[in-house]
Design brief:
By secondary structure, the chain is mainly beta. It has one domain: Sandwich (Jelly Rolls). Strands 1, 2, 3, 4, 5, 6 and 7 form a seven-stranded antiparallel beta sheet that branches. A hairpin with a 4-residue loop joins strand 1 and strand 2. The protein is elongated. About 4% of the residues have low confidence.
Length: 142
Amino acid sequence: MKNPKPRLILLTIFTALALMVGCDNDDDNDVFADVTINEGPNGDIGGDFTGNGGSTSQTFEYQNGLATADYNADITASAGSIFQMIVRDADGTVVLDRSLNGNIEPDSFSGVTSSGTVGTWSVTINLTDFNGDGSFSLSEGD
């Protein structure tokens, strides 16, 4: 009769490894937030964003040939979700800082930024504990 101990030891090790991998309950793998930028002609830029409870921050630049920018944003998100748009002019001065909170009215905003310096502007989109989706856009102002 063969000694069953080596098989039993291998089976025990294999089962333990399978349980460790199979029972990995790291919920962070399911949580995400993402911003996609859609560039248009000079002075026009926008994007879409989505999340499943995650947080992210993305900054991008665009050329603004005028001293202001028209902006809008719209979200559909659950309570606790935060969307923030910060726009800086070519000198780095904040010309817009607006936020929307999920499941609270209003769920959109639009308008014209404060006047700033013409040139390369930057836009920072912050999503905090964001669960939902939305979109935003900027174009050269009046």
